[in-house]
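Service request form, structural biology core

Requester: graduate student, group of Dr. S.
Request type: structure prediction, single chain
Budget code: on file
Notes: please return the result as structure tokens.

Sequence provided:
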Amino acid sequence: MKKLSFLVLAILMSTISYSQTGWYVQSVPFSGSGYNAVFFLNDNTGWAAGNNIVIKTTNQGLNWTLLTNNFSISVTDIQFLNELTGWAVGSSALIRKTTNGGVNWFIGYCPECSNADDFLQVQFLNENTGYAFGDQRICKTTNSGLNWTPLTNNLIVYRGFFFDVNTGWIVGLGASAKTTNGGVNWSQNQFTNNWTSSVHFRDYNTGWITSRAGEIFKSTNGGNNWNLQYRDSNRVFTGLTFTSNDTGWAIGEKINPANRCFIMKTINAGQTWSEQQIPDTYFLDIFMRNSLDGWIAGSSVLHTSDGGSVGINQISTQVPSAYSLNQNYPNPFNPSTNVKFSIVKAGDVKVIVYDIMGREVQTLVNESLKPGTYEAAFDGSALNSGVYFYKLITNGFTETKRMILIK
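Core staff response, request fulfilled:
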């Protein structure tokens, strides 16, 4: 009977852990030191790395085990090809490899690298061929990370992405560059005056680039041309990933309020982006295994099993007689509430929350919607008690209402 009770309790705890919605914090060791990167090999097995530390989980992040804390420098990115073989890069020209799942690591040899080099990203296409990006250069290995050689290009490199061993793109100061022969030659394309910060391609033609000036660009011809899709000067983009040609996420920091991180999601190939609700934490890396399961690394590790959920539902398809923004309910609230609104014509819709000083706190809705009535959820867990305002903006119509958060 006792065994049965423990089994039932374990199932209940597992159900509770996996039924959380949106992005939520997972308990990890040494969370105060911060994590720079996270990578998952499958649904259960993943690694996170940061300042002098690598941890591992085999149960989707419910529990994490400390593998090593003797790197003596900061690990900025990590990738595994299988349960045993993986690579890590970081500050002071760190390039290391493991063949036992991260328990032990040995140093990759790069004679032309110096301690002044800081690698930001690593990508392996197979057991032998890999690239390390960052700090104004890109390096390549063809022997599984034992030896590395810098590749020549005219771009100050920040990050990159390879679709196969030959075709890849790099981003950096005001431009991107493309190679089709494994980095021997590069064709450069300057399309912005700002730092480009991340790049991701879904196929040989379709890709996106972010900038640190709040820009998102899209290419449909392999990077020959880049079209501006999104711009918000209050945002500094640091990362980008897509799981299909339609669904993607972008992360970064807001300038005002300072140091407030954000994550945005698109479900229409970048035409519109909606900000997702997140705990009050900073983060540096996002890894999505598919459209539902994903992790974020930063001051802790965040997880989602529903794609981060934009928190908006259409509750009626009947075309309303007029635009309207309802009073939130419940109100006052602690910590979450719901905002209902109606739109008459299809178009771009925004619902933005502001604090009493008029500063943007969170974007609940930022996408193209059909006529009907919708409900958006707002979570104030990361905010202080006080008065907040929420505003509906669509098709020339605006309306603002007040809500009260009491903790």
